[in-house]
C-alpha cells in the first residue's frame, strides 16, 4: 500500500518469513498497510482514542472537513493510478502514481510532505519520481535531501512493532495552485503464502478528478469486491491472468455532521479480497494465532496465583481482566497495521506490552489456565457500525480484536482503560463481531446500563459568595471511566478539574473534589464537589438565577450534545441513560421571587423527562427536580429519528436553561 490515493487504503497479503523474526510468529500472517493523513511538517500519526473512552466516543465520530459543502476544498486529488500485480506464490508488485493539488493556501501543508509506508523486513520501496509542479506546469524534482526514512511513530518504545518505516518526501516550492506528484514502486522482498490478497480504500474526502485502482491477479484466484461509489470495469482475462479495475470520481463532499457515524457506514468505499466470506477470513486468523506455548508454566502460575481466592468463574475472569488492563501496555496500532497474528504469549507477558491481538492472546491464555473458555473476536473499532460484505482489514472494516467469553455471555476489551469488566467501550458496541473459532458473525450488545444521580445544594442566603455542595454518583459503564480519570490524575489536575467543572456549568467560583475509593475497579463511583460561587444572587436589582439541578455532565450536557445539529441527514450516534437530579437553592431573605419556572413533562418514543419546581417561602428554598430516561435500544439512530425527537429535545433544553427570577427588596 502506498501513500497516494483518494482515501484511506489498506492492502493485505499473507506473509510468511523464511525464518522467525525475534518476537514474531513464524507461521503465516496477514500484513496490512494503513495510510496516514498528510500532516504538515511531521510524521503522521493515527489517534487510537482508547485511553479516554468518553472523549474517544466524540473523537471517533467523523469530523467536518470543509465548513460547507459548496466551499472550495483546499486539496484536490488530480490523478491516481494504483496497480497491484499479484503472483500465485504470493509475490506482489505495487505501482502508484498520484498527484495532489493545493487549491489555496490552506492546502499547502496537506500536500507539501507525503509518505509511503513499508515494512522494512518484507518490502523494498523505489521512488521513481517526486516533484512539485508549479502553476505554470513546470516540474521541480525533489532533491536527495528531501527524501528520508523515519520510524513509524506509534511504535516508539515497543521494539516488537518497529518493522514499519515511512519513506518521507518533502516537496520544494509548494504554493497555492501547486501540485505534488509522487511515483513509487513497492516490491515484496520475501515470498509469502499464496491464497490471500485484500485491499480496502475509503475516500479521504478531498475532491477526486480521477482515480483508477487496478488488480492484476492469477485467473484462478477470483477477486471478490464490495464497491460503493467505486465503479467496477469489466474484468479482462488473458494469458492466465485477470485484471480488475475500479474508477472513482467525486466532487466536494457534504459536511460530516457533528455526532454522525463514520462515513464508511453509509458512504463510498471499496473492499476487494480473494477470500469469499468471513468464515474463511476467521479461519486464516485462527490458524495464524495458534501458539503452542500459550500454556507455559509461567502463564499458568500467574493466572492461578491471581485467582487463588476467587471461586466464581466471573470473579476469576474479572481479576484477570483487571490485571491485563493494568499491567500490559497497549500499543495503539489497529489490527492489520502489523502482522495480523499475535506475538507469543510468553513474549507478551515478558515485555508487558502489545497491541489488541496480543491483549486477546494473553487474556485468553490466562483464562484457559483457570478453566474459562474464551474466543478471539474481530471487529471494527470506532464510529463505523457495519462491515463490508467482503472481509478485509481497514478503517471501515475489521481493525480491532476483543474477547468473547461464551460461558459468561460477555465480551471484553482489555485494551481500554476506564471500562470495567462486564462493560464495553461505546466504540465497539452495537456492531458485527466475527467469532474467530466458529467463523460466525455475531453482534456486540446494542446497549448497556448507565445511570447518573446528582444532588446539588447551593446556599446563597448569606452575604458574599454562595457555598455549594454537589454530589454525583455514576453507575454502569461510565462509573469506571470517571473513576479512572481521577485515579490517573495528579493532585494538581484534580484541582483543575474541579474549577473547570464549575466554569463548564456557566458559573464562576472555586471548588475542590473528593471521591469514593479509586482503588476498586467495579461498582458505582461518587464524586463530591464543594466550594463557593460568585455573584449567584446580586444584592440589588433583578437577578436571573440558573435553576440548576446538577453541575456539568448531567441532563443539560446530554441534551446539548444531541442538539449540536439543528437537523440531520446522516445516521448519528445515540447513547442513552437514566438521570436523576435534584437541586436546592437557598435564597437571601431580602429578595423576592418574581418568577418560578413551570413544570415540564416530555414523553415520546425515545425520551421520558419530567421537571418540578417548588418554592418554600418560609425556608427561602427553591427545589428543582429533573428526571430523564433516554432509551434508544441501539447506538445508531436515523435522521428521521432525530426529526421526530427534535421538538422534545428543545423542550428539555429550554427547561434545563430555566431561571429563577428574583428582585432585591427596597432597603
UniProtKB/TrEMBL annotation:
Coiled coil: none
Domain Transglutaminase-like per the UniProt entry, residue ranges: 301-376
Region (Disordered): 506-525
Ranges of residues in domain DUF3857: 89-252
One Pfam family it belongs to: DUF3857
SUPFAM superfamilies recorded: Cysteine proteinases
Protein name as annotated: Membrane protein
Lineage: Bacteria, Pseudomonadati, Pseudomonadota, Betaproteobacteria, Burkholderiales
Amino acid at each position: 500500500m502506498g501513500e497516494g490515493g483518494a482515501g484511506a487504503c489498506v492492502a493485505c497479503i499473507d506473509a510468511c518469513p523464511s525464518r522467525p523474526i525475534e518476537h514474531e510468529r513464524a507461521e503465516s500472517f496477514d500484513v496490512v498497510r494503513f495510510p496516514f493523513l498528510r500532516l504538515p511538517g511531521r510524521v503522521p500519526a493515527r489517534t487510537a482514542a482508547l485511553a479516554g473512552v468518553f472523549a474517544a466516543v466524540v473523537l471517533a465520530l467523523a469530523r467536518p472537513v470543509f465548513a460547507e459543502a459548496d466551499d472550495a476544498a483546499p486539496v484536490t486529488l488530480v490523478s491516481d493510478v494504483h496497480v497491484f500485480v499479484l503472483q500465485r506464490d504470493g509475490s506482489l508488485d505495487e505501482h502508484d502514481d498520484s498527484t495532489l493539488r493545493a487549491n489555496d493556501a490552506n492546502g499547502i501543508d496537506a500536500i507539501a510532505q507525503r509518505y509511503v509506508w513499508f515494512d522494512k523486513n518484507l518490502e523494498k520501496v523505489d521512488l521513481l519520481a517526486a516533484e512539485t509542479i508549479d502553476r505554470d506546469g513546470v516540474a521541480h524534482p525533489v532533491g536527495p535531501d528531501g527524501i528520508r526514512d523515519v520510524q513509524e511513530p506509534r511504535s516508539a518504545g515497543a521494539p516488537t512493532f518497529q518493522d514499519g518505516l515511512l519513506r518521507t518526501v518533502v516537496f520544494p516550492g509548494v504554493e497555492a495552485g501547486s501540485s505534488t506528484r509522487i511515483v513509487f514502486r513497492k516490491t515484496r522482498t520475501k515470498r509469502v503464502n499464496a491464497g490471500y490478497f485484500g485491499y480496502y480504500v475509503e475516500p479521504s474526502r478531498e475532491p477526486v478528478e480521477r482515480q483508477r485502482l487496478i488488480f492484476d491477479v492469477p485467473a484462478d484466484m477470483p477477486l471478490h469486491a464490495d464497491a460503493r461509489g467505486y465503479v467496477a470495469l469489466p474484468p479482462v482475462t488473458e494469458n492466465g491472468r485477470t485484471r480488475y479495475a475500479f474508477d472513482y470520481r467525486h466532487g466536494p463532499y457534504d459536511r460530516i455532521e457533528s455526532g454522525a457515524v463514520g462515513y464508511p457506514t453509509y458512504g463510498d468505499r471499496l473492499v476487494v479480497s480473494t477470500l469469499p466470506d468471513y468464515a474463511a477470513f476467521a479461519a486464516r486468523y485462527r490458524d495464524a494465532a495458534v501458539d503452542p506455548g500459550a500454556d507455559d508454566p509461567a502463564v499458568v502460575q500467574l493466572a492461578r496465583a491471581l485467582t487463588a481466592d476467587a471461586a466464581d468463574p466471573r470473579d476469576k475472569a474479572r481479576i484477570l481482566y483487571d490485571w491485563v488492563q493494568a499491567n500490559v501496555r497497549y500499543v495503539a496500532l489497529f489490527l492489520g497495521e502489523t502482522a495480523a497474528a499475535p506475538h507469543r504469549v510468553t513474549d507478551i507477558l515478558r515485555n508487558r506490552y502489545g497491541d489488541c491481538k496480543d491483549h486477546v492472546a494473553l487474556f485468553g491464555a490466562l483464562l484457559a489456565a483457570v478453566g474459562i473458555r474464551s474466543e478471539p473476536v474481530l471487529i471494527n473499532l470506532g464510529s463505523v457500525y457495519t462491515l463490508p460484505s467482503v472481509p478485509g482489514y481497514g478503517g471501515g472494516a475489521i481493525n480491532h480484536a476483543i474477547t468473547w467469553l461464551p460461558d459468561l455471555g460477555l465480551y471484553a476489551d482489555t485494551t481500554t482503560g476506564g471500562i470495567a469488566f462486564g462493560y464495553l467501550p461505546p466504540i465497539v458496541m452495537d456492531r458485527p463481531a466475527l467469532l474467530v473459532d466458529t467463523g460466525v458473525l455475531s453482534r456486540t450488545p446494542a446497549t448497556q446500563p448507565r445511570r447518573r444521580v446528582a444532588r446539588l445544594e447551593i446556599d446563597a442566603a448569606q452575604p458574599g459568595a454562595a457555598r455549594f455542595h454537589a454530589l454525583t454518583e455514576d453507575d454502569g459503564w461510565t462509573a469506571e471511566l470517571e473513576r479512572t480519570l481521577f485515579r490517573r490524575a495528579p493532585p494538581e489536575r484534580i484541582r483543575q478539574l474541579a474549577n473547570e467543572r464549575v466554569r463548564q456549568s456557566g458559573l464562576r467560583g472555586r471548588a475542590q473534589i473528593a471521591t469514593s475509593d479509586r482503588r476498586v475497579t467495579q461498582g458505582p463511583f461518587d464524586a463530591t464537589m464543594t466550594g463557593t460561587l460568585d455573584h449567584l444572587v446580586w444584592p440589588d436589582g433583578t437577578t436571573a438565577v440558573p435553576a440548576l439541578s446538577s453541575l456539568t455532565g448531567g441532563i443539560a450536557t446530554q441534551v446539548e450534545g444531541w442538539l449540536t445539529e439543528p437537523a440531520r441527514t446522516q445516521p448519528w450516534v445515540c447513547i442513552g441513560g437514566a438521570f436523576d437530579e435534584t437541586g436546592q437553592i437557598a435564597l437571601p431573605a431580602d429578595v423576592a421571587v418574581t418568577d418560578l419556572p413551570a413544570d415540564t413533562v416530555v414523553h415520546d418514543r425515545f425520551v421520558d423527562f419530567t421537571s418540578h419546581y417548588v418554592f418554600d417561602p418560609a425556608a427561602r428554598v427553591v427545589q428543582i427536580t429533573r428526571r430523564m430516561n433516554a432509551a434508544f435500544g441501539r447506538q445508531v439512530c436515523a435522521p428521521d429519528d432525530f426529526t421526530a425527537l427534535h421538538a422534545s429535545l428543545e423542550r428539555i433544553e429550554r427547561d434545563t436553561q430555566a431561571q429563577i427570577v428574583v428582585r432585591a427588596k427596597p432597603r
